[in-house]
Amino acid sequence: MRVSKSHIHLTFGLLLTTLLIMTTVGNSTLSYAAQATPAATEMGTAAAGNGACDAAVGMTPATPAADILSGAATGDIKVGVAIALSGAAKAYGESQRKGLLLAQNEINKAGGVDGKTIALLIKDTASDKAQAATVFQNFIQQDKVLAILGPTLSAEAAAADPLAQQASVPVIGMSNTGNGITEIGNFVFRDSLSEADAIPNTVAVMKSKLNIKNVAVMYAQDDKFSSDSYQVFKTELAKNGINVLDTEVFNTADTAFDSYLTKIQGLSPAPDAIVVTSLLGAASKIIVKARDLGLNQQIIGGNGFNTPLLITLASKAAEGTIFGGAWSCSNTDPVNTAFVQAYIAQWAQAPDQFSAQAYTALKILADAIHRAGSATDSKALRDALAATKDLPTPLGSFAFDPGRNAKQQTYIQMIQGGKFVLVK
Ligand code: 1QQ
What CATH number matches the domain at 18-193+330-411, 3.40.50.410, 3.40.50.300, 3.40.50.620, 3.40.50.2300? Predict the structure, then answer.
């Protein structure tokens, strides 16, 4: 269910779910929405787009067809793609790669941009700042790309984007949600919704729908996205009068979370929820360990949770987890439905937010190259990107705001019955 005027009124099913969550969380019994099943269908799983995604759950991902891979780096317009295909952000990077290849295939099969095909030069940033900077440097100096898509992590963007800015090469971040990204300069854009925009909506749901009063917070201090998200949560929780009983700080590569969670388990009063901001690996380990230890509070996450791999990794322990994001498979807008179906047909796998944002980024770029009237003038391209307007995409009708950020609605989702279900 999207946050749109037509859906402002809560349906009976959603109300029922909300009441169940409120009751169970309020009583601190085993809750995290396991009992909310009656509303699952009502909450969007029956919608066309989501139906297609749900049907793809359990499919064995396809071996990429030769035609989509072999020609990826061949074409008239060189676009650098700097994504994490190894390291802590690998899961997101893989989705981005698939979304981009799909978009490239569609654009080139339809004749390219004004007759010129797009070449994607895909390089692995390894989830590493220094490597991301090196990849950018090579794209700019050796490959002389027209534009760069990526890098995957905000931490990488903080290190690499200044190089593109200096060289006047436009960059579109496809997953950077941390603070200060587009402030790097006027050649830096992002089509990913910032956590500063998404988290206030998540906290509003925590307060008004889940009746959460006290929380424990856990965040990875060594990753920009994770620590920026923590700051946003901290501010928003305070604004909404939600008490932070305890804050536990860890590192992205940590694998043992017993001591942090045992400390949280000993808190009095007990927190109503645990807020976790980190990338997928640590997040899934925390969720599994929390349930192992018998902690039954609702777990609230952020952008790092926006992949069905969380369900694969944490399995049943992931049930009831809530997080905000910029895209939903259940959005039945025709452009999104077409994307979902094309993605599943290509990859035998459901898309996620990261693939949708990557697919959209290449469509935004192609549209801007066309409007710039040049496939070589990077300044004209920058201006055309800034003027992007009313572009139909899986993320909705797209435009950058004056600060070159994405402005769109937040979808709050919960894992329920092994699926992503909209809670608002
Ligand atoms: C960022 C993120 C990550 C969680 C996803 C790639 O949002 O680093 O900004």
Answer: 3.40.50.2300
